[in-house]
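Escalation from tier 1.

The customer reports that the assembly of two entities below gives different structure tokens on two consecutive runs. Tier 1 could not reproduce it. I'm attaching the input and our single run for tier 2 to review.
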Amino acid sequence: MIDYSKILSEKVADLKPSGIRKFFDLASEVKDVIALTIGEPDFKTPWHIREAGIDSLKKGRTWYTANAGLAELRQEASNYLNRRFDLKYDPSEIFITVGGSEAIDLTIRAIIDNGDDMLLPIPSFVCYDPICRLAGGNVVTIETKRENDFRLTADELRAAITPKTKLLVLPFPNNPTGAVMRREHLEEIAEVLRGTDIMVLSDEIYAELTYGGKRHVSIAEIEGMKERTIIVNGFSKAYAMTGWRLGYVAGPSPIISQMLKIHQYAIMSSPTTSQYAAVVAMRDCDNEVEDMKREYDMRRRFLVKAFNDMGLDCFTPEGAFYVFPCIKSTGLSSEEFCEKLLHSKKVAVVPGGAFGSSGEGFVRVSYSYSLDHLMEATKRIKEFIEELEK
Amino acid sequence: MDQLLKLLEQNAKLSNEQLSTLLGKPEEEIAAAVKEYEDNNVILGYNALVNWEKIDPNDCTAIIELKVQPKRGYGYEEIASEIMRFDEVQTVWLMSSSSYDLSVIVRGHSFRDISMFVAKRLATLDSVTSTATNFVLKRYKEHFFSFAEENKDERRHLNID
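Tier 1 run:
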């Protein structure tokens, strides 16, 4: 009999299952749940993007692409970064990955060695921490705060830097809080980082989804930051292309070329059909993105008001498609809140604690759902709160 | 205010307060815009989209193609307004088609009901030269709404997203 526990890598075996998973398992046991839990767009991929994918298949383009991706797509990514963010990247400083996820994995693996520190603002998406651990690094968390609208501040950053810090993860617009970093906030962060050897992994997967009239600003736009920034982005959230599994990474050549080595050994090349579709997405679909964004924006305003009206403090998020109301006034922990809400009203939201300890006391509510769906769900949450107060 | 019209077109039950939240505009501004649209007949009215078959399985709808002889000096207006007056008639359109002129949508309690209406009321009108009745067998989608019982969310929960 093989003792698998002796065979498995300790680093892998030590990884804890995600806190979201536990809750989803629970939610799946309840029938007819109204979910507000999903982190992907409810929209289908715009038709001419799908058509471009179909067309590439009809033409028999079913081989690998170059390791770094289709030259045409890398050129489009370069044009896009220039058009939307005034960033100048040569296509050779960009390559195409399997989703933003792979780009995150490669960035962390290319930079973090045993014993290195990675700074991670929390609450945030749950993948950075385990990837860093697999690379042998230590995760130094920085708790962002409600009173700062969940932004990372220069003081918090300064206080967290250690002699071993090699990488700062900058996950904005943020999942789960919806927080964004405006230019003035990024200037402050840049001020701390200039003159250090700390690199920034700027996860900009929600860059297209910012509200309130101001566009997303990349930290690479700030003076002196392009040389110390690796931009991770992708097609999933902006173009509703989650299932196509496509992202990209842009950064300084000496780092990008090393990351590309890992990509070519581990992945070979990103999905070919998806890459042909993505060319059309980046080139021709600004209007479709705008339409989806307008819809998200209405839902966002609706939810913020609905939660504040029912007495749950909810700051107005300016990005992504989540609101992050505070549930401390109910006296329940976020897990208790979610479990009780699930069982008494059949509404599922995600406990904030799943995104890092400082998410405790909050819940994540996704608005990648129709307005009718959100109306019914908030009606039930309101009833739940009223019954709690009795 | 295109967005306001789009929202109302999909759900006329949204209150001015809700519209104000969704559009991020003051409630008074919304109320004034709605009133102006109503006054100018941009918004003609509000109604519910009813699935009558759930109430009466024989309930039916037909699209009737009418060929008509337009009258000198009146064109199609006279015959169209004559047809509009029937309570059974939901919709009248003048079409650009080589095979017929007016498209008329009629609802009735049975196929026979509608057939009789066409034979007795429409076919007998002076200007009508021919009629063709097309019965609706199944309604899948109307005015943005699907008649399917359930719109299933096919998205899956991932463990980390």
